[in-house]
Amino acid sequence: MTDNPIEIPQNLRDMSEQSLKQAHAEYENLTDFVTKAMGMWMGVMPANPIATGFKDVQDRVMAFAKENGESALTFAGKASKASTFQELLTLQTQFAHDRMQAFTTHTQELLKLIGEALQKLQHG
Which end of the chain has a smaller Cβ tally under 10 Å, C or N? Predict the structure, then answer.
């Protein structure tokens, strides 16, 4: 590490933070739209064992997508406040590590849910 880290200019950090606020508002609009659209879609689907069996999977996928989006926005908020490139790199490394752990957990959980849904189909 250097004793004199290169500092990110404050005006760039301010502009980044303002852009993040706009992105967060648009993200909220998008998640509301997708949630409503998925609800309407499931409402018009004919009742069948396949649709019923995979409702839990669909709900978890939506929850994972929201978690990932919120995590990215949180990271962006922290990154916009970073005052040095070293701080930004540390934040990015931690974010990547956390997301890879979440990806592993999400994959395991989805495989379990899909397996349960398939078992219900076979027994129902």
Answer: N
